């Protein structure tokens, strides 16, 4: 009975794979017969490149931030109000940012193409400032946040002269390191993660107030 069960299980496992399945081919091929596609050892190689300065810290963290959280929030027409969706996104951004107290961030403000370029440039900046204020209310030091850049209406996601919500946005990006010293993270990643894991048990402060702007821009 035991041999029959073993044979049945083995047959079921093999039946679940096809000759084109990587698991099937690796199981029935000679050891070393398959070419490594570059995945094996990538983590170790990346760590080595960062430690030796061959991999740029800022670029690495910028890519990770953009892949792990939504870096964009959108706004109503001619407004700097952070709605419920925007606040939820920014709270997730703040959770991520708190993991890396040595890293600085910049918030870029954008508008749609309705209104003058001068007005929209100022409106975009105010949107960026609203985001910085909210992130600060979540425990992020203002010294690590910049809202000095606004592209106004010059970089639309959707090129249209009409009102377009997707163009009315802010984008949060990694901009560098505190005191311009990337070595702060050299060999201390585990310490940072553990510290922020413990600190995450503390509830964030209440939501920051928002305001509505009036004018002729988008």
TrEMBL record:
Keywords: Cell outer membrane, Membrane. It is found in: Cell outer membrane. The keyword Protein transport does not apply. It comes from the Bacteria. Coiled coil: none annotated. Residues 62-178 form the OmpA-like domain. Its main location: membrane. GO terms for cellular component: cell outer membrane. Signal peptide: none annotated. InterPro entries: Bact_OuterMem_StrucFunc, OMP_bac, OmpA-like, OmpA-like_sf. The keyword Membrane applies. This is OmpA family protein. It comes from Yoonia rhodophyticola.
């Amino acid at each position: 009975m035991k041999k029959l069960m073993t044979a049945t299980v083995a047959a079921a496992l093999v039946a679940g794979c096809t000759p084109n399945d990587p698991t099937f081919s690796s199981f029935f091929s000679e050891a070393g017969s398959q070419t490594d596609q570059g995945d094996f050892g990538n983590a170790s190689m990346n760590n080595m490149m960062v430690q030796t300065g061959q991999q740029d810290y800022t670029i690495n963290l910028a890519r990770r931030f953009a892949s792990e959280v939504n870096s964009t929030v959108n706004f109503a027409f001619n407004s700097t109000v952070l709605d419920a969706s925007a606040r939820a996104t920014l709270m997730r951004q703040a959770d991520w940012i708190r993991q890396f107290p040595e890293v600085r961030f910049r918030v870029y403000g954008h508008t749609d193409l309705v209104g003058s370029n001068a007005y929209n440039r100022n409106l975009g900046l105010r949107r960026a400032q609203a985001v910085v204020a909210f992130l600060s209310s979540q425990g992020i030091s203002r010294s690590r946040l910049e809202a000095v850049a606004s592209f106004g209406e010059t970089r639309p996601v959707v090129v249209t002269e009409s009102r377009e919500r997707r163009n009315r946005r802010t984008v949060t990006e990694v901009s560098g390191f505190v005191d311009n010293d990337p070595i702060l993270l050299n060999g201390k990643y585990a310490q940072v993660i553990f510290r922020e894991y413990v600190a995450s048990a503390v509830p964030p402060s209440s939501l920051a107030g928002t305001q509505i702007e009036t004018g002729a821009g988008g």
